[in-house]
Amino acid sequence: MTEEIREALEHCEKKFKQLDEISLHNQNKVLQAFKDNCVALRHFNPTSGYGADDVGRDTLGKVTAQIFGAESGIVSPLIVSGTHALTLALFGVLRPGDTVLSVTGAPYDTLQDVIYKKKVGSLVDFGIEFDVIPLTDDGKVDFEAVSRYITNKNVKMIYIQRSRGYSWRLALSIDEIAEICEFVKKLSPNSIIMCDNCYGEFVETREPTDVGVDLCAGSFIKNIGGGIAPTGGYVVGRKDLIESVAGRLTSPSIGSEVGSYAYGYRLFYQGLFLAPHTVNQALKTCVLFSTALSNRGYDVMPKPCDPIGDIVCSIRIGEPNKMIKFCQAVQSASPVDGFVTPEPWEQPGYNDKVIMAAGCFVQGSSIELSCDGPIREPYIAYLQGGLTLEHGILALEKVLDGLES
User: Fold this and answer.
1) Per-residue pLDDT for the chain (405 aa), expressed as one digit of tens each?
2) Is the CB of residue 124 less than 8 Å from the CB of residue 90?
3) To bridge 213 with a disulfide, which of 23, 95, 208, 234 should be the other Cys (CB 3.0-4.6 Å)?
4) Is the preceding peptide bond at 378 cis, omega within 30 degrees of 0?
5) What's the CA gap between 367 and 383, in Å, rounded?
6) Which helix (H) or strand (E) holds 391?
7) Which DSSP symbol is given to 382?
8) DSSP type of residue 88
C-alpha cells in the first residue's frame, strides 16, 4: 500500500466508524425480518411450471417488505433489471390520461425511452404525461415550482430518483425524501409517491418507504443482493399498489400467485442477508476514492465531508481520454475480465457512447466494483460498489498510477 493511500485511509477513520454503526443497525433489521418470517431451508428450493404456492418466492417478498417498512413486496427473478422494476411500477399503477411529475429532474438515461419514445409501448404511447421539474443549482428540490405545478394540475404520481444517475449532484438523503413526502402529501394527499431506490439500499438506517414513499423499486443485483443474487429486482410499497404491479409482471388474472424459478432462491436470501455488510464495504470504497482523489485536486462528489446517499462516487475528469483511462484502470483491477480493455460503445438505452468497466461475478452488478459514464462533457466517471474495501484499495492504486502516466 502506498503512503498516499495510507494517509487517505487515516482521514477516513471517523467516517468508517459511522458507516459501521449504520451497517450494524441494518444487519439487525435484516436478521429480525428473517426470523419473523421463519426463513428455513425449504424456502431455498427450486420450483417449476406455474410455481403455485412457491413459499420461497412469497416469503422473500415478505422479508423484503418488512425490511423496507412496507405493507407488501415483490422480489422476482423475472424482473431483469432496475429499469425493468421501475417500468413495472410505472405501468402497474398508471393509466391513460394520468400525469407524473418528477421532482428530481430528468430520470436516468435508460428510462427516457420508457417514458418518451414513440411507437414502442412507452408511457407517451399510452397517453400518460410525464413532466419534469429540474433541481435547483445546488442540487435541491425546487419546492416552489413543485407547489405551483401541483396546485394547478391533478398529479397521479410524484416521481423521485434517489441516486444521481449521470448528473452532477449528491444522491438524496432519507431526510430529504421525507421532506418531499411531507410537502407533497399536504398539497396533494392522493398523489402516489414513487422512488427509484437503485444504489441507495442500506446506505442509511431507513428506506424511502419508512418515510412516506408509497412505491419503491430497484435491482436485486445492486445493493440489496449483496453481490450474490444472480438476477432479479424488487418493488415494495402499499399493498394495493403492489397488487397492481403484480398484475403487470404476470397478468391481472393471476398477479403474484405464479412465477417459478428452477434454480432455487438460496442466493437471493443469502445475498439479502449479507447486503448490509457488503454495502458498508462499497461505501468505504466510495469514501476512500473520494478522499484520495480530492487530495489529488479532482472535483469529487460526495466530498469526504459530505453526507452519503448512495454507493456512487462521481469524479469530474474533464478530458475524454483521461476518463477512459480511469475506467480502464478499474477494469484492470477486476477479478473477472481483468485482462479486458473496455472502450466506449453505443449501449442500448443510452443516448451517448458509454464506457463501462465492470469485471463482475454477476454481470452488471453495480454493488461489485465498477466504473462507467457517458462520453460527454464534463467527462465524469461514476465509480460504484466494491465487495471488499481491500479490493477498493488495490483498484485505487491502479487508478492513481494511471493518472500519473
Assistant:
1) 899 999 999 999 999 999 999 999 999 999 999 999 999 999 999 999 999 999 999 999 999 999 999 999 999 999 999 999 999 999 999 999 999 999 999 998 889 999 999 999 999 999 999 999 999 998 899 999 999 999 999 999 999 999 998 889 999 999 999 999 999 999 999 999 999 999 999 999 999 999 999 999 999 999 999 999 999 999 999 999 999 999 999 999 999 999 999 999 999 999 999 999 999 999 999 999 999 999 999 999 999 989 999 999 999 999 999 999 999 999 999 999 999 999 998 877 777 899 999 999 999 899 999 999 999 999 999 999 999 999 999 999 999 998 876
2) no
3) 208
4) yes
5) 10
6) helix 389-404
7) E
8) H
Any bridge partners for residue 158, and if so which? 101, 193
DSSP 248-285: HHS-TTTGGG----TT-SHHHHHHHHHHHHHHHHHHHH
Q: Are strands 157-161 and 192-196 parallel, antiparallel or unpaired?
A: parallel
> Taking the CA of residue 268 as centre, how many other CA atoms within 13 Å lie in the half-sphere pointing to its CB?
29
The answer to whether 61 and 270 have CB atoms below 8 angstroms apart is no
Q: Find out whether the peptide bond into 302 is cis, omega within 30 degrees of 0.
A: yes
Distance CA 8, CA 21 (A): 21
Residue 383 bridge partners (DSSP): 313, 371
Residue 308 C-alpha cell reads as 452519503
CB-CB neighbours of 118 under 10 Å: 9
Give the separation between CA 375 and CA 377, rounded to whole angstroms.
Answer: 7
- The single-letter DSSP state of residue 383 is E
d(CA 380, CA 383): 10
C-alpha torsion sign, points 349, 355, 356, 359: positive
pTM (predicted TM-score): 0.95
What are φ and ψ of residue 143, in 5° steps? Answer: -65, -30
